[in-house]
Each structure stands twice: as C-alpha cells, then as structure tokens.
C-alpha cells in the first residue's frame, strides 16, 4: 500500500515537471518572434556594415570594383575583377562550342572531300626525273615548327576543352595530372614557337609575295573541282595564304603567350584577359588551317610530302602543280635524272657530301 502511494507521488512529480517544461517552451515561443522582429526593425542602428556601399556596387557587376590599398603593384587596389567573369562566360559559352564546331566541321569537310575526290593524283604518273625543292635547312626548320606547333596545339586544346571533354572520360584525378603536365609543357615549349615562326619568315618570305597566276588559282580553287590545273609559281596562292596565316597568327599567339606567361611587364588584367581571348581564338583558327595543310601535304596531293622529306619532287608533280617553277628549272637545266639523284643521295651519306643546290632559286 505504502509502495503504491510512493509511486503515485513520483508519477505526479514527473507530470508536473513536463507541464513546467512545456510552459517554458510556450513562453519562449511567444516572446522570441517579438524579440526577432524588434531586432529586424533597427539593424543599422546596432551593426553597421562598413562595406555595404562597396558590396552594393559589386552586385551591380558593371565595372571592376576598385578599393584602396597600400600594397604596391598592378591592379592591387582591384577588389573584384568583373571582367574575369566576362572572360569565363565567353570561354565556356562561346569559345569552346565554336572551337568544337569549327574543328569538327573542317575535319568533316576534309573527310567528305577525300571520300568523293580521293585527293589530287599525279595525272601523268611519275617521270623518274627530279627537282630540288627544299634545302635541308628549310626541311629541318619546317619539321621543327611542325613538331612544336602540334605539341602546343594538343596541350592547348587539353587546357581549353579538357574540363568538358576529358573529365567525363578519365575523371578528375587523372585529368588533373594531364592538365598540369600540359600546362608545364605548353609554357616550356611555347617560346620556341616564336623562334620557328621568325625562321619560317626569313627563309620563305621571298617566295610568298602575290604573283602571276594567283588570282586565277584562287578563282579556280586550285583546280580542286575539275578542269585544267591552274598555273602557279614556286608556291601557289593557297600556300601563300597559309604562309601569311602562320606568320600573322603565329606572331599573335607568341606575343599573347609571352604576355600571359610573364606577367611582369606592367600588363594589367584587362591586357591579360584580351590576350587570353586573342590567344584562344588565334590558336583555334590556326589549328583549323593546319588540318587542311596536313591533308594537302599528305593524302590530298599525291607525292607532295616528298618535298618536305627528301627535299626532291618528281618533275611531273612540279609541272602539274607549279608549272611556272618547273619551266624555270627546266630552262636552267636543273632537272636531275633518277639514277643521278640516287648516286647523289648515296654520296650524301659519306664525307664527300654533294652540296644541295636549290633549283631555279632566282625565279621562285
Ligand atoms: C604533320 C604536319 C605537317 C605536314 C605533313 C606538312 C607538310 C608540308 C609540305 C608537304 C609542305 C611543302 C609544300 C610544297 O612543296 O609546296 C609544307 C610547307 C609548309 N608548311 Fe607544313 N606540314 C605540317 C605542319 C606544319 C605546321 C604545324 C606549320 C606551321 C604552323 C607548317 C607550315 C608550313 C609552311 C609555312 C610551309 C611553306 C608554305 C609556304 O611558305 O607557303 N607546316 N608543309
């Protein structure tokens, strides 16, 4: 009986404790909104954000937000650089999709063209006689520039499109290794491209000025779509256009690349962002041109590559594609018979090396 009485008292105590707790919660809930509302009513009076004005400007996002600083240095007073966001949007929403469309489109056109036309064949077959087209120094220079450019193009495209193209394929970890290796390689070999472009300019500029037959060559699209092959000198109009693209875009890529790689010439962020735009657009255009150049130098034109490997071309190739140059060589007596060339090339492997003599140099 006594036990029952004690347990009833304990239950009553528990009950009153719960009621007390509930009362406290109800009281708090009824007071809290008023207290919060009171706090909302006068926030500025209690805590004034000294940067409020600044952040209002930032949110407008119309121009870079400048502050004041004692740190000496270019743009050190710029708190928020809004143009960085403009560059990012341009890169992600315009440059990358346009690069994909252009490079994919050019590749598609080349493949389609090759499937229909099968490239330009040697109409009269091989003559067995040869003309010297490029000296060794020119070939070494060409392959030096080609190797560096292709490396820079690959690493550059990895940096430009890797997030979109490679991350879904290889994942973040592998991509971070590929991307940082690409960046180091791109920065290391980039400056060498400038030397190559200057070299190409010095060696080839004299043969790339507009000349007789260039307009006709362009109007007939180089004889790509049938009809008689248009007349051309040492280089045809298409090759001249490629040369000037390599020089102008190559110099632009080199200049903007140096601005980006060595940002201590006093260039501010606007210059750097403009350089990024020019560098990206120029690179994509030159790579698109390179697809066409590689095709014409290999599968697109039979026996063309020999000029950049051995230095010699078949006389029939020269007559078909560069008739003015071939005539000048023939007039000069610079045609070399196959056996003579074979002997010459055998000798070139010995100490009694036969010196290269470019054919019809002045007429080119
Ligand atoms: C695998 C890549 C390449 C191949 C197969 C290739 C092939 C050729 C061939 C066969 C020629 C001689 C054309 C002729 O005899 O008329 C040539 C010339 C030339 N190539 Fe390449 N090339 C390649 C990459 C490059 C690159 C990357 C550049 C520069 C960025 C370049 C710039 C030039 C220039 C400037 C000429 C002389 C054309 C002129 O001055 O008008 N090439 N190439």
Keywords:
single chain; 364 residues; mainly alpha; Fumarate Reductase Cytochrome B subunit; two-stranded antiparallel sheet; 5 strands; 68% helix; elongated; disordered N terminus; binds protoporphyrin IX containing FE
What is the structure about, briefly put?
The protein is mainly alpha-helical and 364 residues long. Helices cover 68% and strands 4% of the residues. Among the domains are: 1-38; 83-118 and 135-310, Up-down Bundle (Fumarate Reductase Cytochrome B subunit).
Task: Explain the overall architecture.
It is a single chain. It is built from 13 helices and 5 strands. The chain has helices at 2-41, 43-46, 52-60, 82-117, 136-165, 167-204, 214-219, 237-261, 269-297, 306-309, 315-321, 323-332, 338-348; strands spanning 65-66, 78-80, 129-132, 312-314, 336-337. The protein is mainly alpha-helical. The strands form 2 sheets. The chain has a 3-stranded antiparallel β-sheet. Among the domains are: 1-38; 83-118 and 135-310, Transmembrane di-heme cytochromes, Chain C (Fumarate Reductase Cytochrome B subunit), CATH 1.20.950. The radius of gyration is 36 Å and the shape is elongated. It is 68% helix and 4% strand. The longest helix has 40 residues, at 2-41.
Give the secondary structure arrangement, pairings included.
Layout lengths: L1 H40 L1 H4 L5 H9 L4 E2 L11 E3 L1 H36 L11 E4 L3 H30 L1 H38 L9 H6 L17 H25 L7 H29 L8 H4 L2 E3 H7 L1 H10 L3 E2 H11 L16
Antiparallel strand pairs: 1-2, 3-4, 3-5
The structure holds protoporphyrin IX containing FE.
